[in-house]
Amino acid sequence: MYPNRNPLKIKLDNDRCIHGLYIQMAGPENVEIAAAAGFDYVILDEEHGGFSYSETQHLIHAAEASGIVPVVRVSEQSASAIRKALEAGAMGIYVPNVKNARQAARAVAAAKFRAADTFGTRGACPTVRSARSRGAVEWSSYVEWSNSNIMVSLLIESQEGLNNLAEILEVPGIDTIVMGRFDLAHEMGLNGDRYGKVMSDLFEKFVSDCEAANVPYLTRLSTLDPHDARHEYENWVKRGARIFNFASDRELIAKSFTQAIRPFICKHPVDAH
Question: Where are the domains of the chain?
Answer without folding.
Answer: 8-93+221-273, 97-111+151-213
